[in-house]
Amino acid sequence: MMAIYGPLRLILDIAFFFMLAHIIMSWLINFQVLNLRQPLVSQIWTGLNRLLEPIYEPVRRVMPDTRPLDLAPLVVFVVIISLRDYILPAVLLG
Q1: pLDDT per position as a tens digit, 14-40
Q2: Which distant-in-sequence residues (6+ apart) come within 8 Å of 8 by Cβ?
Q3: CA nearest 74: which of 38, 66, 94?
Q4: CB 53 within 8 A of CB 76
Q5: Where along the chain do its domains lie?
Q6: What is the pLDDT of residues 47-68, one digit of tens each?
Q7: pTM, whole model, 2 decimals?
């Protein structure tokens, strides 16, 4: 069981980092600290969206519409933290 815990933990840690970067970047864009017309900002934002949208979309389908506030990233963030810090250690290292 320990052999599977390490890779799963690594995947969840990477997903956590990408989501954290995406969330912070969305705030900075909304508060006009970052500008999407800058090529580097635009490339990073597009890349993060391409990585994370396939994860967010199924969550959006089952959640009620809360526009303009998108709660899917928050739900996925909480699930990743729960899996990484509580569920996997209890199940695999138990």
Answers
A1: 999 999 999 999 999 999 999 999 999
A2: 88, 92
A3: 66
A4: no
A5: 2-93
A6: 999 999 999 999 999 999 888 8
A7: 0.85
| Residue 6: how many other CB atoms lie within 10 Å | 10
Q: 13: which 2 tokens?
A: 């840690």
| 77 alpha carbon, distance to own chain's centre | 5
Orientation angle between helical segments 39-62 and 72-82, nearest 10 degrees:
80
Taken as a whole, the chain contains a residue count of 94
Instruction: Please state, in angstroms and rounded to a whole number, the distance separating the CA atoms of residues 60 and 47.
Output: 20
**DSSP-derived secondary structure for 20-76:** HHHHHHHHHHHTTSS-TTSHHHHHHHHHHHHHHHHHHHHHHHHSPP-TTS--HHHHH
